[in-house]
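Sequence in, structure out.
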Amino acid sequence: MVAGPYSRHLLALAAGVIGGFLPNKASNIHPLLMGTILGLFFVKVLFGDWDFGYQWTASDVGFVLLTGLEGATGALLAQKSLEQ
């Protein structure tokens, strides 16, 4: 997949916004957690992580922290827009 340098970050933010807008009537998952999960899932599936192989490394921890933070930021933006 050919993508620009910021595609992975924009996808994490967009998935976080979607997670923040999802209605939460039947589950107890907080919108910030749902945005984080969706951001991590979509970026991992569509782009993969930063290293090769199947061993957990320090770059995997950094990937989860950065991508999760971007997804949570998108969900927070969605929640703030719903409050207004």
